Every structure is written in C-alpha cells, then in structure tokens.
Amino acid sequence: MNIFRLAGDMTHLLSIIVLLLKIYATKSCSGISLKTQELYALVFLARYLDLFTDFISVYNTIMKVVFIASSLAIVWCMRLHPLVKRSYDKELDTFRHYFLIGGTFVLALVLNEKFTLQEILWAFSIYLEAVAILPQLVLLQRSGNVDNLTGQYVFFLGAYRAFYILNWIYRYLTEPRFTRWIACVSGIVQTGIYADFFYYYFISWKNNSKLKLPA
Amino acid sequence: AQKEQEKDEL
Predict the structure, then answer these.
(1) Residues of chain A contacting residue B7, judged by C-beta atoms under 8 Å apart
(2) Between 20 and 30 A from A212 (CA), which of A90, A119, A142, A144?
C-alpha cells in the first residue's frame, strides 16, 4: 500500500460520502444520474466477487463491503425511497447505458488477463468503471447548473482515479514485476473523460463563481 | 510460471 493508493481510496470513499450526504441531508437526488449509480453498483459487484474467496487484508475486505453496500444503498434510495425518488430527473437521465454495459462486456471477453469467468468479470468491471460517469456528465451538461455537492462528488470521483495513476507509476518504478496494463490504460481513459469537467470546475473555483457547464 | 498478479487493489 502506498500513499497514492491510500489517497485514491480515501477520495473515492469521500465521493460516496458526499453523495450520500447530499441525498440524505437534502432528501433529494436532483442532478444525480441513477444510471451512473447503477453502473457503479455493477462495477463493484463484478469486481469484488473474490470478496469471500481471496482474503487480501482487513482494509481490502472492509473497503469492498463499504463500496458494495453504499452503491446499492444509493441505487435503492433513488429507486425506492418515497421522498428521494420524486426528485429524480428521469427525463434528463436518458443516456442509453445498456450500450456501455454491452460494449465493455464484449471488450472484456476479448481483452482480459485470462479467459476465466472471474478474470473476464474483473476486466469488465475495470472497463465499465472507466465509462460509468458518462450518464452523470451528460445529465450535468443538460441540467446546466451544478449544485456544490454534486460538483464535489464528481470532482472527488475523478481525483481518485488520478491518484491511482500515480500509484501505478509508483508501483511500476518500485516493484520489479508490476504490470497491470488493463487497469492502467482504462484508468487513464477514465481520468481523461473527467478532464473537461476538471477544467470547468477549476475555472469556477478560480473565479469563485457557480460551476456552469456549456450546454 | 509467472504467478498471477494478485488483485490487491480496489
């Protein structure tokens, strides 16, 4: 475990806490894409299959349980909670995310470390995570104004994968046989997708103005 | 044979 990876996991955890806070405190999920939340729940379920078979460390196990539980809780909240679900922007959240699931699954069948179910699902979860934010970014573009908590949520989510890239560089330099091309390339693509959001987020932070995304 | 990279990352 190195500082970059710990920082990455903590910002990832922070993004989920910010989102839960926003939904719980305001009892509203306006501006949040349910499709992105469903994709993240799928990412964690597909990736953490080894939760009960391979024990890595207490930290690893606890974080996996937290990520699976929180992502399912958010999806449950947005779909079933009587108060929250009313504020869901159903007509704005129209990204066809089933194409993302299909496309990344096919890619995982072709590009994986080993043609076993667990490895294919792991690669699938890595590719899906890279594109899972797209429905959310499209929703933000459509709704134009970004409320602070949602903006912070997306910002921390982007920052976490950026820290992971530093972690992979560090591990590549310090561990003789560390190669993780699938996660690395996919992680770079994922961080790249946030680039434009980061740009507007930084501009709004510098001008101390409201975050506006060009429609 | 190269031991499979253990998936120790989240």
Answers:
(1) 50, 54, 56, 122
(2) A90
